[in-house]
Amino acid sequence: MTVAVLGAGKIGEALLSGLLDAGHDAGDLLFTERHPERAAELTDRYGVAGVEVAEAAKRADVLVVAVKPQDIEPLLDELAGLIGPGSLVVSMCAGLPTSLFERRLPAGTPVIRVMPNTPMLVGAAMSAVSPGKHATDEQLQTVERLLSSVGKVVVLPESQQDAVTALSGSGPAYFFYLVEAMIDAGILLGLPRAVAQQLIVQAAVGAGTMLEEGGEHPVMLRENVTSPGGTTINGIRELEKHGVRAALLDAIESARDRSVELGKAHEE
Ligand SMILES: NC(=O)c1ccc[n+]([C@@H]2O[C@H](COP(=O)([O-])OP(=O)(O)OC[C@H]3O[C@@H](n4cnc5c(N)ncnc54)[C@H](OP(=O)(O)O)[C@@H]3O)[C@@H](O)[C@H]2O)c1
């Protein structure tokens, strides 16, 4: 099976890199890019061929669209004249509904919407997958198999994709932001930056592993660190005082709203 990534930016590169790490052959992968220097850089790094969209459409069984939502229109115009009956289109574009692709590509083109995230780069993606109206169960399984090689996969109704985009698509950025702020706190307390970074990164990795492997609820895990009269509860009081929980609820709701807005921009 040949997979072509249309738009090998951050997420497209993460997919190529993750698929190669998972044992996919570089000869079975293709990508398209607008800038020749970027294409050359990717080919040097991964040994994957950069091609024109027309060649990708001709050779690939699966076309993964990974351009920014704002760049979708010209790509759809180009693809409309190129897509063959055997092609499966997978969109990773935030906010864009499968109906947009179905409307603009040849009638009956199977489309599957995916919201991945950048931990794909290290084989730890969370991808949520929703089939469009022409995608078969077999095609859905093909995409699930492909993405399972670079992380975890859930199949969800497309109506939940804007929420998924806000939660797990953007989620890594919120964790990076927290880690960044906690490193700053270490600096404030006089620790060398490298030490602060090592301490917080390992705390994050350890907490992530406990969340994933221990099966305990996050509330229990936090309570286990929060002894009566101890240090952690003082910190929690400050987090509550500053409304950090409410800020996270607002932040993720706002990201969801932006995903909805990106989709609306392409409505007829
Ligand atoms: N980054 C994330 O964490 C993340 C997570 C989940 C989903 N996504 C989705 O993934 C998509 C890509 O996001 P990104 O962060 O990877 O953006 P990005 O780094 O800007 O990557 C998009 C790439 O596509 C290229 N491109 C644009 N139009 C093209 C065309 N017609 N033909 C070939 N290449 C084209 C762009 O080139 P230029 O440099 O010329 O613009 C750029 O290299 C978005 O729709 C986003 O919603 C991203």
TrEMBL record:
Gene Ontology MF: a single term: pyrroline-5-carboxylate reductase activity
Positions annotated to bind NADP(+): 66-69
The Pyrroline-5-carboxylate reductase dimerisation domain, residue ranges: 158-262
Segments forming domain Pyrroline-5-carboxylate reductase catalytic N-terminal: 2-95
Reactions accelerated catalytically: L-proline + NAD(+) = (S)-1-pyrroline-5-carboxylate + NADH + 2 H(+); L-proline + NADP(+) = (S)-1-pyrroline-5-carboxylate + NADPH + 2 H(+)
Domain of life, per lineage: Bacteria
GO cellular component: cytoplasm
Compartment list: Cytoplasm
E.C. no: 1.5.1.2
Principal location listed in the UniProt entry: cytoplasm
Biological or metabolic pathway of the protein: Amino-acid biosynthesis; L-proline biosynthesis; L-proline from L-glutamate 5-semialdehyde: step 1/1
Pfam families: F420_oxidored, P5CR_dimer
GO biological process: L-proline biosynthetic process
Keywords: Amino-acid biosynthesis, Cytoplasm, NADP, Oxidoreductase, Proline biosynthesis
InterPro entries: 6-PGluconate_DH-like_C_sf, NAD(P)-bd_dom_sf, P5C_Rdtase_cat_N, P5CR-like_CS, P5CR_dimer, Pyrroline-COOH_reductase
Function: Catalyzes the reduction of 1-pyrroline-5-carboxylate (PCA) to L-proline.
PANTHER family found in the cross-reference section: PYRROLINE-5-CARBOXYLATE REDUCTASE (PTHR11645), PYRROLINE-5-CARBOXYLATE REDUCTASE 3 (PTHR11645:SF0)
Similarity section: Belongs to the pyrroline-5-carboxylate reductase family.
NCBIfam families: proC
Entry protein name: Pyrroline-5-carboxylate reductase
